[in-house]
Design goal:
The structure holds 2 protein chains of 2 kinds. Chain A is an all-alpha fold. Helices cover 75% and strands 1% of the residues of chain A. Chain A folds into 2 domains: 2-73, no CATH class; 89-307, MetI-like (MetI-like fold). Chain B starts with 20 loop residues before the first helix and ends in an 11-residue tail after the last helix. The chains are: A mainly alpha, B mainly alpha.
Chain lengths: 317, 285
């Protein structure tokens, strides 16, 4: 129980600071939020309107409190550029980003698990050396460069996948998947490289243990031992990493959505910037950060369910 | 068969000369970049001058990287872009390392409430996906090299703080710390003289890896058009400029993209080797 009390307390603290940070984003706009949003030449009546919308005349803690209360009730503010609630705009974009991130995770794991297993089956073999080298290189290449190379090879030269046509999931499932292959692959490659390195190292460690030697001693083939005996106990670090990486992927998806013109949350945020639609920027930032915090908590819960020893020791960090 | 190495490989002495060709190549590339950044203004070709008739012209003998959509020489632009990447990289890593290092030392040394407070603040900072936060802040605070550097520097703080905190927690329990305390040394003196030397090594090694992360974030921000101002030449900006031209003029994006990737690769390789080469020691652990 002490474990959970600690986790929940730290969750409350983190959420308070995250919301404060997001609130300050708007509050600290140069010249004041209303001028920043409407521009310096806006007419005084509109400025006064926005001032009262954002309750800028109240003391800081009062308006921050009201804002947190609004957010808790699903109100992320008003977009002055599009004249509609920010929450509605975010809600429309969430499925696109979520699908992209999930597809990327699935792709990354389906690359990483076989590659790591084959590498760990024969450490030092040609395959293992090539895979280790390749993963080191891929980790070092920024996502947008991977994306550009993929577009160049698969969209421009070979013309197998579209570079910038998004099909909505509701309209046509196969068309939707087809349009997401390149973006998801772009996001997945870097993750796959990290997962491969982690899983390979953990597999090699497991392979040194007695129960593996016992399984081998019963004459089971090495491949079968890796898949049936070693993979599961070696996957704890991987599970944590997959969870934690949702944050990285959400950041990476900003770049990928821009590169492939996907109408996700990142694109929403980027498009809002030239339009001075800062309430949207704030809404997306807050939403993404809170989602990330919650995912992390779930990963912690999952992790301690898999390995109950975690609950007894105070969490590191 | 069960191919396991019977006897452990003898530990080779680690001097820079036998770290291999790749290590030296990586160091050479990074040295070259520093030289380029310093000497860029002396390059004969003007990176800002557009030759309208040579727009998107491919690589040639006198202009090995070709020309961009405005007829500007890409090699000259890449050379000048080195400055932004290096300045943002060095300054924001320094910011992250000094603030993060101090926070980590304080959290690890005093523990209890101070530790809880600092760790909660750091966790909240880590809750924002780096790129999303950087985009939000630069768009709202206005684009300038200073803003980008400061934002990325702040993003690096929690990473350095964690490393410093972990090192401090380990060192605080040591006998020589207790001994110093018994001899009447104050907290400041203990932290500076006894604990800092344990923490500084890992911090410096991590600084190299952080440098790679910083260059990626800066490149991504400039690529998205929310990094350094448009008239400041940066690698990310040049790459973004060629993005719409991949069909007819891929060289515009590819050359700067290659330079950026090689740089990060070099930084990561050097960092990895200095850390003991754990992730690249092939065929074992």
């Amino acid at each position: 129980m002490a474990f959970w009390r600690r986790r929940i307390l730290s969750l409350v603290g983190v959420l308070a600071l995250v919301s404060l940070g997001s609130y300050l984003l708007l509050d600290l706009l140069p010249g004041g939020p209303e001028v920043a949003i409407l521009g310096p030449t806006a007419d005084p009546e509109r400025l006064a309107q926005v001032r009262s919308d954002l309750r800028l005349d109240d003391p800081f803690l009062t308006r921050y409190g009201r804002w947190v209360n609004d957010v808790a009730h699903g109100d992320l503010g008003w977009s002055y550029d599009k004249n509609r609630p920010v929450a509605d705009m975010v809600r429309e974009r969430v499925p696109v980003t979520l699908e992209l991130v999930l597809l990327a995770q699935i792709l990354a794991l389906s690359i990483a698990i076989p590659v790591a297993a084959m590498g760990a089956a024969r450490p030092g073999s040609l395959f293992d050396r090539v895979a280790s080298g390749a993963s080191f290189v891929v980790v070092s290449i920024p996502g947008f460069v991977i994306g550009i190379v993929l577009i160049l090879l698969l969209a421009v030269k070979l013309d197998v996948f579209p570079a910038s046509e998004y099909t909505r999931l509701g309209d046509d499932i196969s068309g939707n998947l087809h349009s997401l292959v390149l973006p998801a692959f772009t996001l997945a490659l870097g993750q796959a490289a990290i997962y491969t390195r982690v899983l390979r190292a953990d597999l090699l460690e497991t392979m040194d243990q007695d129960f593996i030697a016992a399984a081998r001693g019963r004459g089971l083939p090495r491949r079968r031992v890796i898949l049936r005996h070693a993979l599961r106990p070696s996957s704890l670090t991987l599970v944590t990493l997959v969870g934690l990486n949702f944050g990285t992927l959400l950041g990476g998806s900003v770049v990928v959505e821009r590169l492939f013109s996907l109408p996700g949350m990142g694109k929403l945020m980027l498009d809002a910037i030239p339009a001075r639609d800062f309430t949207v920027v704030q809404g997306v930032t807050l939403f993404v950060a809170v989602a990330f915090v919650i995912v992390n908590l779930l990963v912690d819960a999952l992790y301690s369910a898999i390995d109950p020893r975690i609950r007894r020791v105070p969490p590191p960090g | 068969m069960f191919r396991r190495r019977a006897e452990p490989r003898p530990q080779e002495p680690r001097t820079s000369s036998d770290r291999g060709v790749l290590f030296r190549a990586a160091l050479g590339w990074l040295t070259l970049l520093v030289v380029v950044a310093v000497l860029a203004p002396m390059w004969p070709t003007d990176p800002g001058r557009g030759h309208l008739l040579r727009r998107l012209e491919g690589p040639g003998w006198r202009h090995p990287f070709g020309f961009d959509g405005n007829g500007r020489d890409i090699l000259a632009r890449v050379l000048h872009g080195t400055r932004v990447s290096l300045i943002v990289g060095v300054v924001s890593v320094t910011i992250g390392m000094s603030i993060g290092g101090v926070l980590g030392l304080i959290a690890g040394y005093f523990r209890r409430r101070v530790d809880t407070l600092i760790v909660t603040v750091l966790d909240s900072m880590l809750a924002f996906p780096a790129l999303v936060l950087a985009v939000a802040v630069t768009s709202i605070r206005g684009q300038s090299v200073t803003t980008v550097t400061a934002v990325i520097g702040v993003l690096m703080v929690p990473l350095f703080a964690r490393i410093a905190r972990a090192g401090t927690l380990g060192a605080v329990e040591r006998e020589y710390v207790t001994a110093a305390r018994c001899l009447g040394a104050g907290s400041g003196r203990i932290v500076r003289q006894e604990i800092l030397p344990n923490v500084i090594g890992p911090l410096i090694v991590f600084a190299l890896l952080a440098f790679g992360i910083v260059i990626i974030i800066e490149g991504a921000l400039s690529f998205l058009g929310v990094g350094v101002p448009v008239d400041t030449i940066s690698w990310g900006g040049i790459i973004a400029g060629g993005q719409g031209r991949l069909r007819d003029a891929p060289h515009v994006s590819l050359f700067p993209a290659a330079v950026l990737s090689i740089t990060i690769l070099a930084v990561n390789y050097v960092g990895d080797r200095l850390r003991g080469g754990g992730s690249l020691r092939i065929g074992g652990r």
